[in-house]
Amino acid sequence: MASHSDTLVVFFGATAGANGGKLGSDEREIILLVWQIVDLHEKKVGKLQRCLVKPDTLELTDQCKEETGLTLDEVVKAEPLDKVLQQFQQSVSSELKCLGRSTYTLCVNSPLVIRQALHPEASKKNLVLPECFFSFVDVRKEFHKCCPNAGPVQKVNLFTTEKTEHCFGTSGSNNAFNDAILFLFLDHKFSSVETVKYKFDSGTCSKTEPVDSETVIRARGLPWQSSDQDIARFFKGLSIAKGGVALCLNAQGRRNGEALVRFVNSEHRDLALERHKHHMGSRYIEVYKATGEEFLKIAGGTSNEVAQFLSKENQVIIRMRGLPFTATPQEVLSFLGPESPVTDGAEGLLFVKYPDGRPTGDAFVLFSCEEYAQNALKKHKQILGKRYIELFRSTAAEVQQVLNRYMSTPLISTLPPSPIVSTRDCVRLRGLPYTAGIEDILEFMGEHTVDIKPHGVHMVLNQQGRPSGDAFIQMKSSDKAFMVAQKCHKKTMKDRYVEVFQCSTEEMSIVLMGGTLNRSGLSPPPCKLPCLSPPTAYAAFPTPPAILSEAALYQPPLLAAPRPPQTTTHSPAHTLAYYPPHPHLYMNMNMNYTAYYPSPPVSPSTVSYFAAPPGAVAAAVAAQPHPAAAASPVLPQHGALVRMQGLPYNTGVKDILSFFQGYQVSTCCTEAWI
């Protein structure tokens, strides 16, 4: 279709829900299409064509009935959208033939009918739209250029949805529209023809590239297996910037169901916000504003190797996980086979490595088309060497994130462990009403409130962030804690008796971090369990002591915040965390440091705080006769340990050693918990 001609096709539509400025915002289907040909050369207007469309969901809102004058009975008898679009093409082609024309310009009173209604609905129904719907002229913007004093573009309305005797959008409103069209387009040159992208273009983004915050949104609630193409399809009709989809990963490198999307301008970003809670399959997607800094943090990269790998345009990216550490490019190419050729052979492979050059077992592969990528995905969990290989769809932004995460170095220097002394100057309250707050606890403590340290009340929250019925209170001394445990034990709070126990700061820390403390002993949380060591450049660092006296009352989950220098008691607890401690750094007790490096995008995206079997790791702690002599909650380790959950019941030591093939494992350090 030509970008400009002396023949116009004025196009209008209505949905079964909201219309006007909110057209398409409620995800309702199109029920009416109206069009009319305008011959600017002969100064004539063709016959107004009106076609009803039968939606899949036979329901009209009251607002729709009032504005269009349509009834459900009329809509039920109509043709579906694909048939009506065929009628549109046949009708326009026939009239153009009579006029001796072959091209025309599609004009709309508002881009919403094209961008927010027609393209999204056609995408959901897998309809292929005619080429004419991928470029159009916004009549309001053209009118505003001719008459800049007419008011804001959004308020310019050249034809309305007034109903008349038999036709919707005709008669008086039609005459006014015709006059405006003839006035506007006589000898007028179209200066801005808007286009709709056929597909999303992947690409890279530099950290130094300026990104306007008015063009970025955050999509939340995405299926974990969704790709950048799926997200682009969700925003079909809107123009996403090249490489403008960045899937977010959590601290463990797993997709967290969020993505940052960058559009070409603020107008398209505003239209994207109107798709809040629209559906992708059976899931509704939340859409919020985001900033350019957030987008660059996820999608930006500085690695020349990654930039060169992603420099090839229109490539499908596949992530491979579980490769043998000795795998070569030729072995990977042979594994994929001739039916899924890699772009440029070995140049289309990117192996992910640790900073010291050791392979991680991950790689990214480029394919020139969707067919080759689908053939490669069929090899998911097939064997290469002695290992099965996982294959998943990936994105350019995910390549940047994974490489940045693997190649990054710790920002905090390694410090020797500090001597820690255990003091039982805390009390634990168990069995609190779930509605109990800080004031209720202070009232429960009565006269002992004066002996609480400043900011010394800590509510224990469950995984959903709600009160769990437990709380810890830091007292000024162990004697004060003993008195509280004696006098307040099994006192009543809101018709429930509350148990009060004396405990140490370290025991409080273990529970606040997700561990368990009961009669069977102390079980450390997942973040304190020994886990697989990172590269040799990163030793396992001991963590700082428990909660500091100035800690907040409620610890927000998954948040680390720096704190001013504190003076506190210490204990000799040694943990294996990949973030080294610092005297001036306070790590929130609810953070789960289960891993430093990312895992595949298909791993479960939720992080749970599963406690270890009671007393399995720290039985020695509970067995100490005196608090001052309490040992570390985690037994001293010279190497690094990993805890495995969900093993088959008949698993033996040999099976475990075979699972960790390629790692240095000491057979004497393999232990099973019964």
From TrEMBL:
Keywords: mRNA processing, mRNA splicing, Nucleus, Repeat, RNA-binding. GO terms for molecular function: RNA binding. One of its GO terms (cellular component) is nucleus. It is found in: Nucleus. Residues 216-288, 317-392, 426-501 form the RRM domain. InterPro entries: ESRP, Nucleotide-bd_a/b_plait_sf, RBD_domain_sf, RNaseH-like_sf, RNaseH_sf, RRM_dom. GO terms for biological process: cranial skeletal system development; mRNA processing; RNA splicing. SMART domains: RRM (SM00360). mRNA splicing factor that regulates the formation of epithelial cell-specific isoforms. Specifically regulates the expression of FGFR2-IIIb, an epithelial cell-specific isoform of fgfr2. Acts by directly binding specific sequences in mRNAs. Binds the GU-rich sequence motifs in the ISE/ISS-3, a cis-element regulatory region present in the mRNA of fgfr2. Belongs to the ESRP family. This is Epithelial splicing regulatory protein 2. The gene is esrp2.
